[in-house]
Every structure is written in C-alpha cells, then in structure tokens.
Amino acid sequence: MEKMQREKIVEVLTRVDYGASVLVKGWVRSRRGNKTVQFIVLNDGSCMSGIQIVADLNVFQEEALKKVTTGACIAVQGSLVASPGKGQQVELNASNIEVLGEADPMTYPLQKKGHSLEYLREIAHLRPRTNTFGAIFRMRHHMSMAIHQFFHERGFFYFHTPIITASDCEGAGQMFQVTTLNLYDLKKDESGSIDYSNDFYGRQASLTVSGQLEGELGAMALGSIYTFGPTFRAENSNTPRHLSEFWMIEPEVAFNEIEENMQLAEDFIKYCIRWALEHCTEDLNFLSSMYDKELLERLRFVVDNSFVRLTYTEGVSILEAAVANGHTFEYPVYWGADLASEHERYLVEKHFKKPVILTDYPKEIKSFYMKQNDDGKTVRAMDVLFPKIGEIIGGSQREESLEKLERRAAEMGVPTKDIWWYLETRKFGTAPHSGFGLGFERLMLFVTGMSNIRDVIPFPRTPRNAEF
RNA sequence: UCUUCAGUAGCUCAGUCGGUUAGAGCAUCUGACUGUUAAUCAGAGGGUCGUAGGUUCAAGUCCUACCUGAAGAGCCA
Fold first, then answer.
1. Which residues in 282-341 of chain A line strand B, with CB less than 7 A from it?
2. I need a labelling partner for A6 at 20 to 30 A (CA). Which of A70, A201, A319, A363 fits?
3. A72 three-class SS
4. What number is the ipTM of this complex?
C-alpha cells in the first residue's frame, strides 16, 4: 500500500469530492454481501457512524476477505463515491484492504447484534467498540470540555487539589488508606495502635474523599477556582448511582453567598446540558432511540426552565401536606429529619416536576463547615435534586467565622488538629465564600439517559470489582 | 450492609406438577444469492443447567450454604 495520510471517518463522511483516493483505518463492525460484492461497515471511533466499504469480488479474491471479520482491524484504501444504496451518503470503493489485526470470530466476544449492558460490563476492555459505549465515552469527553470551558469563560482557575491526604474530617465517608507499611508485619504500640511513624508520610494517609477544603484555600487567594479530579469513597454502596472511584467538580468562590452559589450551580448544569445538545447530536440521538425516548425532551426541559428554590423547612411542609392528603412514605417526615430519596423524589418528580434546589437544612444533618444562619437552627446548605438521579449537587456557603467554625467542629466531634491550615483561612483575612460539589458521573447519567453509573465511566470501581 | 429477583449453548432467553435423549432465536461454521443496511435463505456444530452439599426410586426443576449479577433501601456525589 502506498504511503498515504490516514483520515478519520468522521471527516471522510462529510466529503463530496467523489473520486478522491482515501485511506481509512478502523475496526470491522459487520461484513455482508454475496459472490459479487461485499459490504464492510468500518468504524474508527471518531463518530457513531461507520463508513461503508465496498469490496468488488472482481478486484478481491474471496479468500483475501476471509480475515475481514467482525472485530478485525483493517486499513482500507479506496476511492470516495456517492453511495447508490440507501442508508449512507458516501462509501468507499476499496482498491486495497490490509488486515492490521485479526479477530477470531469463534472467540471475539462482541457480535454485531446487541448485547445486554450487564454482559458488556464484564468485557469493559472491549465495550468502547460498541455504538453505545462509543457514544457515552465521546460524550464524557465533551462534558469534560464543557466544564473547563464554562469555568474558564468565567475567570475561574483550574486548581489541583491533592489525591493523597492526611486529614479525615470531611465526613464524606470511609476512606481508602494509602500505605507502604508491610501488612504482614505491622508494628503496634502498647495500646495496640498501628505505628505510622515509619510509613511513607510518617503518618496515616488516605485517598481524598473531596478536594473542598484545599479548594477553599485556592478560593481565598485566587478568588474563583474549580477542581475536577478523581475522588474515592470506601463505602460499601451497591447501587446504580455509586462508585468507589468517581470524578468530582468542585467550584469554590470567594465573596459568593448562597444565592450566587445557587445561580452558579444552575447556570453550570444548564451550560453542560446545552453543550451536550449542541456538540453530541449524533450520539444523543442514538442513546435516545436505544435507551430513553424522552431523553432529548428532558434535556431541553431542564435547559429551558428555572430550577425551583425552596428551603428545607418549606420542603418539609409540602411533604407533611402530602402525608395529610393520604400520601404514604416509608420513612417519617418531620422537621429535623434527613430527607430520604423517596421524599426528594416526591418533591422533584411529583410535586414540582422540575429540578429543585433545597436550602437551609437543619445544622444537625449537615457538615461542620457550613455557614450558620441567625436562627441558630439551620445552615446555608444547598442540594440540587434532579429527576431520575436524585442529588446531583451538594454545596453550601462556608462558615467564615473562626469562632463559630471551631465551636461547631467541637460540637460535632470533628478532629480539627489535622486541618489547622484550613482554620487559618478564617484566622487570616477570612471572607464569605461558597462552593459546591458535582459528581461527574451523575451528570453523565443525566445527559446520556443511562440508568447505571457503571455504564458512564470506562472502568468502574465498585465494591469487589476492580477488574481492568 | 439489608430486602427482593435472577444465574440453562458464545449472547438473549424458554424449560409445565420433580419423570425418557436439554429447547429456541441470534452469533459462529458450511453452502446459496448480482448493491447489502443488525441483509436474506438452507444446513451443521455447540451444554459440568453458577459452586458445594442435601431430599428423592428419580433434580435444570425441591431444600441449605456460598459465589456472581440486577433492582430497591441505607450512606452519599
């Protein structure tokens, strides 16, 4: 084969310079045909569509096409022609086909017919080659770009918080320990505690459960920052909405109060969804047709309507009214109770039928760092609740008073000695500030219409599952 | 972690009240077909019924434990 520049199928499909000689490389999705002509659908991942390769058997020996099987990788040189068949604008009349990598049809796990998502999870190393996961992972990229673009446009700085941390007071869940100690020969002191003085960091260390505390340090210097990185929770959560390793976006803004924080959250989510509608049309249409017919409608609805904002207290009143009218919940509703998912779902899906931002929760059920309201009972927390997926964002205005912060930490039994540096932001030049955290995969669930979080990250990490 | 459901061919599933040799579609292979669109048509091969015990004359089917998966719940993003 003469030396040519390989072209991406996404580009070739838009071309109209018929007769041009083109080289494409990709993986065979299917081959069909008869004694005269064979059709090969070739996909290189650059877009959902494959290009149809036409192999005239006057040009090719049937034997030469034997290795062109589903899953094989081939390079095809041919001339671009307008397709006489239905279903595609252009196709490639092959003049040369080279098999770069064979795929034994007897053992190749992907067939051209559909597979269940559960089965594809077991072959996560190959599922990116399917239409569904090609679409999802292309969208994952686009959503990442949207996030950076949104914050960059608004003057936020991408701030890198550490993945390994020695503080355990976020209260966000169980942590994975990081150690180089010999687990077969752990040294313990008289009280039976493990001696970490010889560990890598000279102290106990873990994978981060949130970059928020360090993010606040950035905000108190750079003004507006965001983080976007992996986060780890060692919770034994087995649900379609939890991963033990997931990606989180955490903006933090100096001088923002809770209202501005809410506006930022709403603008941010809408920006991302609008970006998906504009940049991922082909993939969205596929996912919509295959998995969720109302997907596009739901995305447009969220973009076009403002989120409902109400306080926890108002939310509880609505739920209590529902109970009075005969609606039954499994868990009781009363002021002070943490809302169960059935309660959140009722507000979002039954009562308001649109995204809801709940604010001003009882201080007892929220973290120590949230700004205390003057009523002495509530804090300036905010949760953004979405249809289908529940809580997509959790955030708050932060307590800027050192005294109040320390008192609350003590009341809640939070060990603050490891976060003296965090407290010093309140000691030196403290300022009102706010931020929130958004689970990237939860956003992905919403924009793709997928229902299991294990299907929107290439290699999901969940309890008892770290394959690939 | 709790509750419920499921595990039978490469994949998706059927298998009746416990009863003879384990069924289908798709995939794969072989053949047919002059442009197909998840092509079509004909034929063939393909099984440790999740694992280990137990009940029974007899277990894919009933019981127990465990493993794996899914849904819901809790925890949370």
1. 331, 338, 340-341
2. A70
3. coil
4. 0.92
